[in-house]
Write a structure and sequence with these properties.
single chain; 187 residues; mainly beta; six-stranded antiparallel beta barrel; three-stranded antiparallel sheet; 11 strands; globular
């Protein structure tokens, strides 16, 4: 899964090759899969490929996602956005849910979207790092008791500017229900 505004249906997705974090080098890495479907309401698209596991790239390595749930006001979440990582902010956490059910689009707080999606808004607390342009499609997750990771959704948009506190994501539960998917927690 990734954000629907990232690629078009039928696009073959590859990792980047070369220097880590250099997204503009034009080098093609390993094949990940092909975009097979997209839904704008949840700003989500499926990428079908072999051996795609339910995990997130955390500061200390790949961590299994063991479940998924809705995000509610007062919850705290993290994300594994790649651009934030390469800007020196791996696994931003302490993002507090401040609006558990909102519509966000070009005229309603999400200038990076060309359409309106339904999801959740959160703000990084204590002058923390929210997200960066290029983090779209990152896994939003909560760290539950015992350190287990619970999927909460896909990072979609947020307050303009790298590191600004506002983050908008669409909910994993809605996306999984729409596509009829379950997790594949292998690591």
């Amino acid at each position: 899964m990734t954000a629907a505004h990232c690629f078009g249906v039928g696009t073959k997705i590859y990792t980047h090759a070369g220097t880590p974090g250099d997204y503009a080098n034009g080098l093609k890495g390993n094949y990940v899969g092909t975009v097979t479907a997209r839904v704008q309401e949840w700003d989500a698209e499926t990428i079908d490929g072999a051996n795609n596991n339910a995990d997130e790239s955390d500061t200390t390595g790949w961590m299994r996602l063991t479940s998924f749930a809705y995000s509610y006001n007062g919850d705290y979440v993290c994300h594994d956005g790649q651009r934030s990582y390469f800007m020196g902010h791996p696994t931003p956490c302490d993002i507090k849910v401040t609006n558990q059910d909102m519509y966000c689009g070009p005229s309603t707080g999400c200038p990076g979207l060309s359409y309106t999606a339904r999801g959740v808004w959160g703000d990084a607390v204590n002058n923390g790092w929210g997200a960066a342009g290029g983090d779209s499609g990152a896994t939003m997750f909560a760290v539950e008791p015992g350190g287990v990771r619970q999927a909460r959704g896909l990072l979609s948009d947020g307050t303009p500017g790298d590191g600004t506190p506002g983050v908008f994501w669409t909910e994993a539960t809605d996306i999984f229900n729409y596509y009829g998917l379950t997790l594949n927690p292998q690591t």
